[in-house]
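Observation: inputs received (chain + nicotinamide-adenine-dinucleotide).
Thought: call the complex predictor directly.
Action: predict_structure
Action Input:
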Amino acid sequence: MKILILGGDGYLGWPTAMFFSKRNHQVIVVDNFIKKKIELEFGFKPLNSQPSLQDRVKIWNKNNNKSIKIRIGDLLNHRFIKDILKETKPDVIVHYAEQPSAPYSMSNRERAVFTQYNNVIGNLNLLFAIKKNCPNSHLIKLGTLGEYGTPNIDIEEGWLNITHKGRRDKVLFPKKPGSFYHLSKVHDSSNIEFTCRVWGLRCTDLNQGFVYGTSTPEMSMDFENLCTSFHYDEVFGTILNRFFTQAVTNHPLTVYGKGNQKRGFLNLIDTINCVNIAAMNPPKKSEFRVFNQFTDFKTLNQLAKDVQSASKKIGLKTKIKKIKNPRKEMEDHYYNPKNTSLISLGLKPIRFNEKIILDNLKLVQKFKKRINKNYFLPTVKWEK
Ligand SMILES: NC(=O)c1ccc[n+]([C@@H]2O[C@H](COP(=O)([O-])OP(=O)(O)OC[C@H]3O[C@@H](n4cnc5c(N)ncnc54)[C@H](O)[C@@H]3O)[C@@H](O)[C@H]2O)c1
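Observation:
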């Protein structure tokens, strides 16, 4: 298949590009490096250094006799994305190219506006370009589990069957997201559902939990040159990456608020497997299909305890510290998201376990000198 990876320089985009290229699909990666610009704006660096996208692609293509292609440009430029689709007519478009940070979107008005503009308008430009140039392409769009919030009912996969005053209907699951970033994803989902219904496009919306891990079989072939990024700062870092870097530097694992908040998550390899499963099992024309993409869920306290107990095995004396929650969110809540669709299509989940934690801690230990403890504590507050 011809597969376009939008956001192909990113944490998920780059390993996804290698995965599909290895399996002999024709891969084109698109990026405008906005993530790198945001890193510079905050002065944050990922834990590991990574060759440029151009160098990684050269090394990958040369060593594997492949031909990943790169197109540099912005989804906000509608001519750019229209021209790419016209020229390439992809079978599958994997859309990762959005501003992915909730704290960034909550840090001030400009960044909230940028997040929604970048994500919603970029996605809308893409939808118009698909309609005009390749209406049969399968759009695989990355949304988040955080779109749903923490409702007091089970979280179904995108849709909800309701009975209201004796009448029945199937509606998009009511979402109560927790940041301007998560809201941008909800707006995207509504726009995509509309274009499936009205224009007959076909889409899989993957409502994904947070992703951990920095290892895939393709990266392991030459980790130094082909690695993806590892962030532990408050903009791009995720909770597990923060816990791993804190444990290795003898800093207490900082848990926000009571720590009873539950989060769904999955391994990087499973993310790519889920995208692959979606690609190999396309939805019908006009179908807006939603999969909840996570393999485990735990409270923040459980995650902290798991990392603490594993870190003891390698001689670390890790403590856990509760700090004031910078976010406005429920700290005690019901949580029961469903995730049966991907499993019924063949996903064999990699379960989060002690060995995985130890592998991550050992990797982080190699880069210990580069860890900047100033990144650990949150500065962005939801309520100012
Ligand atoms: N990583 C996670 O834990 C996670 C969890 C749930 C959902 N997601 C979603 O998955 C997607 C990928 O996440 P990631 O962690 O790889 O993020 P990332 O920031 O590492 O990658 C996104 C890439 O898209 C590019 N980009 C952004 N806006 C663009 C635009 N207008 N035009 C062209 N390129 C643009 C960025 O430069 C970046 O390289 C995002 O949409 C994110 O919201 C990620």
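Thought: report the result.
Final Answer: The pocket of nicotinamide-adenine-dinucleotide is lined by residues 7, 9-13, 31-35, 74-76, 96-100, 118, 122, 142, 144, 208, 210-211, 238 (CB under 6 Å). The chain has a mean pLDDT of 97.
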